[in-house]
Every structure is written in structure tokens, then in C-alpha cells.
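Hey team,

Filing this mostly as a record. A colleague (T.K.) asked me to run one chain through the structure pipeline before their review meeting, and I want the input and output archived in the tracker in case anyone asks later how it was produced. No errors, nothing strange. Just documentation.

Input sequence:
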Amino acid sequence: MQLFTLAFTHPVEFGASVFAVAVMMYAFARAALAADGRATWTRRITGPNGKWLFSLLFVGWAVLFGVGLQLVPHEGANSPYGGIGLIALFSGFFVMMGFLWSVIGE
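Output structure:
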């Protein structure tokens, strides 16, 4: 029953999550329509210069999370920095998959 009252008990968090889902659905729809030729941003990131974009993204990711996570204190398993590490894991995976996509697609 608490799930149905969530929008009323936590309206800001619920609205933020609805907004995030709407943005993701918009991005997915734009990617699905890319085959129709309407969305040209996919051609730009997968073209010959896409590998440079993803190379710079990877270097930025490595500096941000590689150096940045070394500067924070490590307090054990219950540290709040585990969430940052998880974000680093997922974002690094998608950056590297984008890099492979742009290099192989060339």
C-alpha cells in the first residue's frame, strides 16, 4: 500500500524520478529513431571523429574517478564512497562501449 501513496508522501523525490525516467525515455526514443535519419547526433558520435570524443571522455573519466577517488578518505565497507565507485564502474563501461562502437563502426 505504501507504494501507491509514495507520490503524496514524497512528492519532490517522486517528481524527480518521473523527470529522470522521462529524459531516459526521450533519449531511447531518439536513439531508436536514428535509423530514420532524423537524429544526426548519432552519426556525429559514431563517425570518424567519434573515437576522439570517446578517447577524451575516457581520459576525463580516468582522471575524475582514478585520481579523485584516491583523494577521499577510505573508511571501510560502510563508506559512502562505494556509491561513487559504482557510478564510476557503470559510467566507465558505457564510455568504453561507446569508444569501441565508434572505432569498430568506422
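Quick notes for T.K.: DSSP finds five helices and no strands in the chain. Residues 1-39 form one domain.
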